[in-house]
Fold this sequence. Notes:
Blueprint: H1 7-11, H2 20-31, H3 43-77, H4 81-88, H5 95-107
Amino acid sequence: MILLVYPQQLKTVPGQKTGVRDAEWLADLVRHGLLQPSFIPPAPVRELPELTRCQKTIVQARTDEMNRLQSVLERCLSPFAEAVELLQTIPGVSEVVATTLVAEIATE
Length: 108
């Protein structure tokens, strides 16, 4: 059986902690409850940091794709920007309507 012990608690125990006799002595201390085992969280809790890293990676990839799409749209619509601005001077015509009109005219 392997038991993890708090390093600070083990430092206070005299001896080298490298020899066979020291190992036997530490085993005796553990058996008598004089060394407390370290806390090892359950498996689901240990998985949380990895899941958080995955979520961060996915969110970053989504943001990158949205920025790339925005850039492509801006490059595609730049030749028609002047027409869109001109159409927006008409009362009641929003940017979406003006862009749709210009796109419809351009496809014909």
